[in-house]
Amino acid sequence: MAFLLGAFLGLVLGVAVVMAFARLENTRAEQRRELAATVSSFSKLTVEDLRKLIPLELYPSWVSFTQKQNLNG
After folding, report:
1. What integer pLDDT is reported at residue 28 of this predicted model?
2. Under a CB-based contact definition with an 8 Å cutoff, are residues 72 and 48 in contact?
3. Out of 30, 58, 59, 67, which could bridge 63 as a Cys pair, Cβ 3.0 to 4.6 Å?
């Protein structure tokens, strides 16, 4: 009787662990899809779009624009 109870509990716990792992992986995959969509939208921004979003004085010192880009603004 103890063997059957142990086997049943082991089976239930095993299925629970597998289901929890699958749910965790699905949640993680959804977060990665959302992050990829965000990165994709940022990669499509042009210099003009960035200038509209962020004032020039807030750019880091290592960001530089070419003379042609400076004349357009």
Report:
1. 97
2. yes
3. 59
| Cα–Cα dist 73/46, whole Å | 12
Q: What is the largest CA-CA distance in the chain?
A: 85
Count of C-beta atoms within a 10 Å radius of residue 51: 15
Could you state, in order of their start, the residue ranges of all structural domains in the chain? 11-72
Task: Give the pLDDT confidence score for residue 42 in this predicted structure.
Answer: 85
Distance CA 56, CA 44 (A): 19
CB-CB contact of 51 with 73 (8 Å)? yes
Q: Are 47 and 69 in contact (CB under 8 A)?
A: yes
d(Cα 4, Cα 36) in Å, to the nearest integer?
Answer: 48
Say yes or no to pLDDT of 3 above 70: yes
